[in-house]
Amino acid sequence: MSFCNPQDSQLSTRAQALGEAPCSREQPDCDQWGTGSSPVFSLYRRQFTLGEGKGGFALELGGRLPSLVIAYESYGHLSPRGDNVILITHALTGDSHVASHGIEDRRPGWWEGMVGPGRPLDTDRYFLICSNVLGGCQGTTGPGSLNPTTGAPYATDFPIFTVRDMVRAQHRFLQALGIRRLHSVIGGSLGGMQALQWAVTFPGFSRSVIAIGTPGRTSPQSIAFNEVGRQAIMSDPEWEEGRYYPRPGPRTGLSIARMLGMITYQSQLAMERKFGRRPVAASYALGKDPAQGNSPGKQALQSSWPWHHRPLPTPFAPTFAVESYLHRQGEKLVQRFDANSYLYLTRAMDLFDLGRGYAGYREALAGIRARSLVIGIDTDILYPVREQRELVEAMQEAGVDVSYQELVSPWGHDAFLIEFDQLGTIIRNFLSQLA
Questions:
Q1: Among residues 71, 225, 278, 313, which one has the fewest Cβ atoms lying within 10 Å of its Cβ?
Q2: Cα radius of gyration (the chain)
Q3: Considering only CA atoms, which of 263, 273, 280, 279 is closest in space to residue 226?
Q4: Closest listed residue to residue 38, CA positions, set 25, 46, 28
Q5: Concatenated DSSP letters for 213-277?
Q6: What is the mean pLDDT of residues 315-321?
Q7: pLDDT tens for each residue of 275-291
Q8: Per DSSP, what are the bridge partners of residue 32?
Q9: Does the structure show a pLDDT above 60 at 113?
Q10: What's the predicted TM-score (pTM) here?
Q11: Packing angle, helices 220-234 and 251-265, rounded to 10
Q12: Dist. CA 251–CA 254, nearest whole Å
């Protein structure tokens, strides 16, 4: 449940006194212009304004935001002692909608199998909060938000920010809500970067952190993937140097960036299992995604259809199932995400290095006080397990109480969004040891 719940009236009263937008079915839940992204309204998504009249929000690399709106959702109930709060941090194109909220909000969230009564992140036991990250496009201030100084969208006037800035914004937001301690911070991918940054920047604030499929600093290969995606966006004539609002913007460029990203989120084994060399019609003739598996009908199509004799609209129209899948994924992201947010967030990921601003990488890790769990994914090509193992080794050398677990999965980087049974057992066991 959210702070709208009367049972959380004490925290709700404090939140509203500090500037939280009330629940309303009439008010939009996102301050973005028409950017091509379409945040889905949720009764449970709320906004909280920080910084107005108080000097704004200063950023690590020198920029400043006059004010900062944080969009978030919450689940469960705050304990009388306030000691059951878990912050969930989301990945690159994620948002605050971790899971559905019940009868009034049945829309599945991106971690639906992990959150809810009796699930690994048990809402009968924990109070869960997930906020849209700084620079996002699902309710939190980002490039598509109005600049209060000019009255126009920030666009590329939005200052560069870092993962540390994301975490500082979350910290300030939680403090404003009266939350003084976290039971845990949990996230995968960019969310894992945030979890690790929490441990370094605010070492006494969270009792534990769980970082999934993430490094302690971004590798050149990962930066290279991000740069190709950014170039796809910026090479689209519709990008217009980022000043495309309120027009849809670089839909083709963002779609291509997403297609590249989806390749890095898979593994070779996943590609073989989901698509093989099946032609488009063999995978989609029955109206089902190839990831749902093979049926006898599909197998018959695959073996009998002379796809290579079929006339194509152009010589390079999608022919194989994997091509069609990538195009569909690109089209889907364009409907819900802002291209400028994609540029800024991937740059923040590139800049991620826990050692920046410290005497060294291990010196930064030495300050961690939270009990830590790092989880790798054995088929991850975006952040290979050697990066998690190196991180854990460095943390151990720095004296951190850290453990390592590894998901065994064919699904690559995306396994943390799929392998709920395996991941859930690991997380449930870790959290139980904190009791």
A1: 313
A2: 22
A3: 263
A4: 28
A5: S--SB--HHHHHHHHHHHHHHHTSGGGGGG--TTS---HHHHHHHHHHHHHHHS-HHHHHHHTTT
A6: 89
A7: 999 998 744 433 344 44
A8: 145
A9: yes
A10: 0.86
A11: 160
A12: 5
Alpha-carbon distance of 263 to 275, in angstroms, equals: 13
The residues carrying an active-site annotation are 189, 380, 413
Q: Letter for the amino acid at 103?
A: I
| Angle, in degrees to the nearest 10, between helices 163-176 and 339-351 | 100
Indicate whether 164 pLDDT > 50: yes
- CA dist., res. 57 & res. 164, Å (int): 13
Q: Which fold is adopted by the domain 223-341?
A: Rna Polymerase Sigma Factor; Chain: A (1.10.1740)
Domain at 6-219+353-432: CATH architecture:
3-Layer(aba) Sandwich (3.40)
> What residue type is assigned to position 216 of the chain?
G
From residue 259, alpha-carbon distances to 111, 219, 232, 332, 413 in Å are 22, 20, 10, 11, 15
Domain residue ranges in the chain: 6-219+353-432, 223-341
Q: What sign does the dihedral 45-51-56-62 (CA atoms) show?
A: negative
Q: Amino acid letter at 107? A: R
Q: In the structure encoding, which two tokens stand for residue 198, read together?
A: 């929490």
Q: How far is residue 99's CA from residue 73's CA, in Å, rounded to a whole number?
A: 9
Q: Kindly tell me if the per-residue pLDDT of 180 is higher than 90.
A: yes
- The two three-digit tokens of residue 45, written as one number: 């998504």
